[in-house]
Structure formats: C-alpha cells, structure tokens
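sanity check this fold:
=====
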Amino acid sequence: MQVPDVFNAADYFVDRHLREQRGDRVAIECGDERVTYKELADRVARFSSALVHRFGVRREERVLLWLLDGPPFFYAFWGAIRAGAVAVPVNTMWTGKDLAYVLNDSRARVAVVSAALLPSLLAIPRDERRYLDHIVVADGDAGMGCVELGEVLERSAASSDPAPTNRDEPAFWLYSSGSTGMPKGCVHLQHDMVICATGYAREVLGITASDRCFSVAKLFFAYGLGNAGYFPLSVGATSILWPGAPTAANVYAVIERHRPTLFYSVPTNYGMLLACHPPEAGREFDLSSIRLAASAGEALPPALFERFKARFGLEILDGIGSTEVLHMFISNFPGRVRPGSSGELIPGYASRIEDEEGRPVAIGEIGNLLIKGDSTCALYWNQHERTKATIEGHWIRTGDKYHQDADGYFWHAGRSDDMLKVGGIWVSPVEVENVLMEHAAVKECAVVGHLDHDRLVKPAAHVVLAAGFVATNVLEQELQQFVRSRLAEYKRPRWIHFLSELPKTATGKTQRFRLRRQE
C-alpha cells in the first residue's frame, strides 16, 4: 500500500471499516464481551474528542496507557492517535520505578489505567509524576481525583474527523524492556503499522477478514500490538483478548472457547503448553481451529518445534522482530519451515550481515545483522547518542549475531553480547541450548560464558529439569556427554547448574545477563 502524505493511522485501521460496510463485524472478543467495528469506531471517536476538548491534549502530546488487554486499550490507543496525540503503551508488569521514569520521560499529561494497576500509580509521589494532570480509570471505580472511562465516553460527543496528521508524524511510542538500563522510548510514525500489516500479516500469514487472532504476548509489547491489535484491524478480522495471566491452562481455555485461527506465542509459552495435559484421561486439548501458529521473542529450539508438530499437527512459524522495527522482519513461511532457523526475509525488508569492521561476511559465516525497512522507529526519545549508535541512515543494528545459508535462510547465533569466544572461535549459546533441549531431562536451559581458572571463557549451562528428573552429578555428566556427542568438543558446557527457573523478561526472553552476573 502506498501511504499518502496526509494519513491518520486510526482512520485507516478503525474508521475505514465503516466506509467499507464492515460496521457490524465483530472487532473484539474479550470473555463475554463483543465489540463491533461500529461500536469501536464510536468509542474511539468519543475518547479522541475527550482528549482534545475535555483534557486539553494537543497534537503530539503523549497519552500513557497502563492497561491490561481488553477493549479499553483499543479505545485509548486509537483515540489518542485519532486526536493527533501520541499513544504510549507501557508494560503492566513494571514496578513504580519504571513507570515513574516513563511518566517523566514522556511527560504524559493523561494516563489511562486499569483499576487493578491504579494503586501502584497513585503510590508514586506527586513530585515524581509532576507532568500528569489527568488519570482515567478504564474499569471499576475511580475516586482519588480520577475519572472513569465509561463516564468520559458517555459525556463526550464523537469527534467528526481524525486529525490531519502526516504519514511521518509520531503516532505512538513503545518502550524497550530496559534489561540493560532504563527503558528506551522508540518513536513510531503514522505509517509504520501499515508496513508491518502489509508485509508480515498479509505476505506471511495471509490474514483475511475471516481470521480470529489470539496472542499470548500482550498488547503493550510490539509483538502483541501487531498480533492482536493492528493486524486484525487491517483487514476487518476479529481480535481475541485475554487480560489474565498466560498460563497453559488459561491459554488452552481461551483457544477452546474462542476458536482462534491465528495463534501467536513465544518459545517459553510453547514449552509450557507442551508440559500441560488435560486432567481427563484420553482427552487432548482442541487446537483444531488454528491454521497457523507463530513464535518470536527468542529463537525457537527445534526440539520444541518437533514436539508441538507431533502433538498438535501444527508447524510453528518462528521469526525475529524488534521493538525498534515494530514487528517481524525475518520469518519462516507456511509450507517451507526449517526448524531452528528464523526463516527468510519478509517482503519490504533488506538485510546485511557484517563483521566487526563492517565488512560483509561470506555465506555461512556469523556476523552482526543489520536490517532496512520502513517500519523502523524514527529515534529513541531523549537518547541522541544511542540513536546514532543503533540507527545508521536507513539501516538499524539489531544487536543479533546471524549467519545466512545458501538458500537465504537466517540462523540465529545469539545476541551480540551473548556470543562466546572459546579458544578464539565463536560459539553460539543458542546452538548448545538447542542440543540440550533434545535431552528428555531438560525443560529449559540457557548457556552463558564462565571464566575458568585461567580466566578464559568457557560455556556454562543453566538447566531447569523436566518433571520426574533429579539433579545429580551423574545427570550433569550425562548432559555434558550428550552435547559432546553432537557438537564439537569446545562447545561442550564445562559446568551444568541446575535451577528451579530461569530469569526472564516480561516478554519471556531469558535474561542471560543476569546469569552472567551470577557467574
């Protein structure tokens, strides 16, 4: 799609469906609630009007969203964009410290908050949220000087026209997880979501109006925002939302009740699903409605892929994206999956793999991955030097090590700071982890570097055992030999540490930096 100069993303993803006679279609399902496209457009327009006329929000001012997944997220996100303001969804699992930082970094004047999260917001001292003038509570009683979203929508007339924003005007920010420092605000523009919906959703998934989308990753994540947010709205499909915890039991219950056709998750959750079985003997969970399953967040081990396919008959389309590029730029395609690979370039994106001096590497050699695509964020807010170090003209450094094979498939070799150099040779922690995951005793694992007595780096494996297995010296030696039998000797973990769980980010990514600190 050629995006015109005057373009408002809310008009394209929401209002357009009324003009194209899709108003009666269901846009959102959340528990027992159903919201049609006509109802969605009306509530988005009302919230947009309230931002301008009731709260005095001006063009490009920020509106913070601290919301659990549900219809209010859609009203606030698209309402802010429709008004020409900037929507800023943030992690619902953040502490008050992270939230206070983002409130001040974004200088948001309005915050829309779920009632369950309101006490944590109000616990932040007023001088640490000095820019915040209005708090809108999405569900439940407001009190404490706040207003209720229902009352705001009821008392606001629907604004007639969306703000005449430019295609290159800011529409929303997404903050990175901040695993190595304070969160970074990625400034995304009005046209960015169209690029991802046109590329990944249509070219890879083949999404249509008849699809029903369910994402384990929540809406405040870049991955979840596409999966359950603007992907279904790009074609008039239905988004299935679940505000609760994505436990295996909950995920299976949502799938069996709402019958999604497109299912998006992360490797950790796929592992949880495989570890869960119905309580009734002889019964299996019904995933027959799903036509495609997708994965992102970290590399999907081939063992998980094979086990999921054997159990449910579904191939998982693994891929890689980032908050900075908004969604996927490399993915496996239906019918041509290579387990363990991130897949092929998605139409609309270009890639380079370079060595440390910026020279192209040969096919099969590991290097630093750079990506070019029009969905890349404009900058990191208030972080000029970080922006220059990461975004180089049309190209962005992903921070990932990759190699590409002769058929064009990309193979993840870990983050740039996760790679190990053992005896002068690069070792991919992902490669060692994939082998360990093939052992029946291993539920999860992460490999990091550990200094030996000569202060040389060697691989160390942190392992979470599967049910029925006990940590012993014999098992430790067995796992080491298991790797040795499949990989070169220098890749063998010199140490096996048994843990009850691995440290993870809110998106389910293993925090290897925390394991390195322990080492």
